[in-house]
Amino acid sequence: MQKIQNYINGELTAPVSGKYLDNYNPAEGKVYSLIPDSDGVDVQNAVEAANEAFALWSSMAVEKRADILQRIATLIDRDLDKLALAESVDQGKPVKLARSVDIPRASANMRFFATGSMHFASEAHITGSEAVNYTARAAVGVAGCISPWNLPLYLFTWKIAPALAAGCTVVAKPSELTPMTAFLFSQLCIEAGLPNGVLNIVHGLGPRAGQAIIEHPEIPAISFTGGTVTGRKIAATAAPMFKKLSLELGGKNPNIIFADCDLEQALTTSILSSFSNQGEICLCGSRIFVERGLYTRFVDEFVKRTRQMTVGDPLDEKTNIGALVSEAHMNKVLSYITLAQEEGGEIVTGGKKVKVAGRCEGGYFLEPTVITGLSHQCRTNQEEIFGPVVTIMPFDTEEEVLAYANSTSYGLSATLWTENLKRAHRVSAQLKSGIIWVNCWLFRDLRTPFGGMKQSGVGREGGWDALRFFTEAKNVCIRL
Ligand code: NAD
């Protein structure tokens, strides 16, 4: 069985303990590879390598650094099919989604920050005729980057690319549920000639390998994407050590449909924003609010289209919804469907496991599920489910829907559908979310700030925000 290896000091290595964990193919429900069960010793080795490499990498001419990162992007493009297949097998997502979204975005991340770093300039402030201030930004040191399982290579590169581009060396840990493409990525880094120790990838469990990264005194900056509960633990460890922290956490995003919307566009996109990647995207709109005049028509049409979705083998090009990432996660999602019924909800469609014949009969498949009849306050509508499950609720006024939308402890993203520009501005201004999409969803420009309010996180990724995060600013004031 294939053994995934750590990538430390430029070499693919076994964990020092020699221990491995099972890695599942969620579409088959079977172990298909092994992953290092790394611990603090492996993390220590990775930090030493990263520290050793820092002087060379941080002082390298920015063009040369960018060149190496762009070479990695080119290798990702070359291996598109191989990486897409690996992502689909490891995560359960349809291979066509991995081929069209996940892997192209991984190379785009590398290219975006590589080229961006060449335009990253120091600021200067002229204080009348009395002084000149300039702000030098230097790489913060060894950065710790920890990513989740839903968009494995996409989010892994979204963190490490700005860190490396800013001149940091990195100790990174992908999710233990989806380690494969980060492993393949480490092979591409070697092929691209990334100097030893610049990027180190330590595989393993969050509480063991992940926690060792967070606690390490020589890692001054942590960039984390994952659940809010984990984010809280990380903040509790890192805050007293005064580490720089970027936290991208969970969401419970509202999708608001006004009666004056372009219904066809709203329906087509809402199906995607509900069920893409099995609903396992932090930006999925899991609470759909529809203005009362349109409610019945919207629900009927939305349910009809939901029933037309194909749940099945992720490697089949016709599949819209693949497998959930793990049995434990599938059971968590199922428990919320039971809860929704206990809370008085009606399962209009879906709600059950799907048996896919043949190779995938042991896989973790669920029907896309639509629930109506719930209040916005119930647990089903307040807690993140992170699966192919949406609720639909009617509303009468703007004030009412704003109160519903803002009623959770999360504030990641919101989508709204209206042809009325004034309303779009007014509602956007009052939504307590870091990212608002008007008449679209997941339409990304990598220069824009990305992140959440409230318990959806701290800080913003993307564009200059990401490059600045991985640097320390030093102001020099020269009295004239
Ligand atoms: P998770 O919090 O369980 O794990 C995320 C990562 O943290 C994994 O690599 C895990 O091993 C590691 N980890 C766990 N405990 C740790 C600890 N004590 N110290 C250090 N590392 C630790 O999240 P998940 O289940 O992998 O991902 C799903 C969650 O991620 C959802 O809540 C989703 O909304 C969120 N998410 C947010 C964004 C965003 O941009 N805001 C993007 C994608 C996913």
TrEMBL record:
Q: Which residues are in the Aldehyde dehydrogenase domain?
A: 19-476
Q: Which InterPro entries match?
A: Ald_DH/histidinol_DH (IPR016161), Ald_DH_C (IPR016163), Ald_DH_CS_CYS (IPR016160), Ald_DH_CS_GLU (IPR029510), Ald_DH_N (IPR016162), Aldehyde_DH_dom (IPR015590)
Q: Name one Pfam family in it.
A: Aldedh
Keywords from UniProt, A to Z, are: NAD, Oxidoreductase
Q: Which SUPFAM superfamilies match?
A: ALDH-like
Top-rank taxon: Bacteria
Q: Where are the transmembrane segments?
A: none
Molecular function, one GO term: aldehyde dehydrogenase [NAD(P)+] activity
Query: Gene3D superfamilies from the entry?
Result: Aldehyde Dehydrogenase, Chain A, domain 1 (3.40.605.10), Aldehyde Dehydrogenase, Chain A, domain 2 (3.40.309.10)
Which residues participate directly in catalysis? Answer: E248
For this chain, the family text in UniProt reads: Belongs to the aldehyde dehydrogenase family.
Q: Which PANTHER family match?
A: 2-AMINOMUCONIC SEMIALDEHYDE DEHYDROGENASE
UniProt-recorded name of the protein: Aldehyde dehydrogenase
Which organism's genome codes for this protein? Chryseosolibacter histidini
